Structure formats: C-alpha cells, structure tokens
Amino acid sequence: MARRRSTSACYEFFRFGVKQAWACLFGGIAVFLMIATWRFYPQDAPLARYDFLFLCMIAVQIALLAGRLESLEEAKVILIYHLVGTVMELFKTEVGSWIYPEPNFFRIGGVPLFSGFMYSCIGSYICRAWRLFDFEFTAHPRRLAFAALSVAIYVNFFSHHYMLDLRWLLFALAGWLLFRTRVYFRVWHEHRSMPLLLGLVLVTLFIWLSENIGTFTKIWIYPSQRHGWSMVSVDKIGSWFLLLIISYTLVSLINKPRERRVRSGRLSARSVASAAWRGPVTDNLCRFKALKPK
User: What percentage of the chain carries pLDDT values higher than 70?
Assistant: First the structure.
C-alpha cells in the first residue's frame, strides 16, 4: 500500500489512526474499565466499584512506567494535573455541579480518588502524542503567556460561581494566542500540519464523547441526569477546551515546543516508494555496463 500512489494515502491514514490509538492507551484503558465495570462488576462485591477502578488505574500507571511507555518526567506532569483536577473536583461536587452516586472507601469528601485519573488520561495522551508524532511548531506562543492564561482559566472555574463568568474572554485570549500557530506532526516520513487551535478543538470533542460514556456508565452524573441519562450539554465542550489548555501548558513545560525548520535530506513517502522501485533497476543497469565490452 505504501509503494502504490493510489493506496499510499490510505496507508498513511491507517498509520495515523494506529498512532492515535497508541497515544490514547491510558485513556482507552480507562474508558474500557468504565464500560466493563458498569456491565459486569457485581453489585454485592466486597470491593466497591470505584475502589476497583482506583486500584486498576494505579496498576496501569505503574505498568506504563515500568514498560517505559511514559518517562518519569512525564509522569510528574501528569501527577500535577491529577492533583489540579482533584482539587477542582472537590469544589465542584461541593457546590453540586455533579455527583458521584456510588459509595466507596478511597475518597476525599464526595470525590472518589480515581476521578483524578480522568485528568491524567488527558495529560498522558498529550505527552504520548507529542512524542509519537514528533511535534514541531511555527509561531508558537511564549510558554509564559500560556501559563498566565492557564492560571486565569483555573481561577475562573472557581470564581464564576460567585462573580462574572469570564470564559468568553478566556476563549478570545486562547484564540488570539493560537491564531497563527501551526503544529507539524510526522505520521510517516513527512510532516503534515494543521492549525494548533483546530487540533485542540478536535481533541476536546473526543474528551466530550468520553464524558458521555462516563455519565452513561454512571461513573458520575450531572443534576439533569438524576432521573435518567441524557447527552451531556454541548456547553461542556467549552469547559473541556479550557481544561485542555491547562493540560497542554503543563506538558509544554517538559516538552519545549520546537520551531519548525526545513530539513534537507528527508525523503517523502513518494520518494521512498520510487527509490524502492528504482533500486533493482539501477543495480541491473550497473551490472550490464560492467559486462559491456569496451
């Protein structure tokens, strides 16, 4: 497929999907456990479902580190985002934004400790995608500007319960910072590119879909879902986008964004395919010239 012009694009698209799935390893396992425990976990088990999920996610994190699928530096950043998310969970459940309906042992107030791993999944995805796709950037904002925006976003998640909600201003600031930024990602031999803002929006949509799975399996529920499940409000897409900015900022602290440079000597997929076809022909031609009488 890679050598044929008609199918090389399909091959690259397939390769892109495989890399994305591998980057989503931690999150994919979390979603699988949500569905599996909702469907099969016994209600009368001595270990509560939430506690089982908590122990499973700890085991997964240890396995990723032991298998060197995540570095220790990446794990530290993921842990920070885990703690940031847990603090916000404590506040949000206290004010009634959402609830965790099932009892369990490993919890702080109304928040099961496994809930922080849902934020870890996002940080893990960004770390792994950054490495797997060899990210490069053009016109990337200064990390200090990202850090200031992230602090403002985090404060607003608390303060909007008591004063004016500034999320539309924060959206505008994020758009202003990222308007010119392009991310270059290597699927195969060549780097493809897209606006970083569009990439973050697409990731946000997948997080929102995962949130619908989480509420459907009753991991947590919103007040509107107390009497029966319904789709999570599209307003939450904006909230997840802002949270994704925080996660991206934390990951960028250990993965310094590299400026895109034109690299000579890197072959395109078509060039590699042509070279693979021309190789035997060139070899046979050289042999013919060596045998040709002078």
Answer: 89
Q: Beta 191-195 vs 111-112: how paired, if at all?
A: unpaired
Tokens coding 143: 């990390």
When pLDDT is averaged across residues 237-258 and rounded to a whole number, the result is 94
pLDDT at position 262, please?
59
What is the arithmetic mean of pLDDT over 102-112? 92
- Summarize the confidence of residues 57-74 as an average pLDDT: 90
Structure tokens at 279: 């190789």
Task: Tell me if 65 sits within 8 A of 80, measured CB to CB.
Answer: no
First to last CA, the chain: 42
Number of C-beta neighbours around residue 157 at 10 A: 19
Instruction: Tell me how crowded residue 174 is: count the other CB atoms within 10 A of its CB.
Output: 21
Q: How many residues does the chain have?
A: 294
Q: Considering only CA atoms, which of 119, 93, 116 is closest in space to residue 106?
A: 116
- Please report where in the chains the tokens 């404060």 appear, as a residue: 155
Tokens of 245: 């900015």
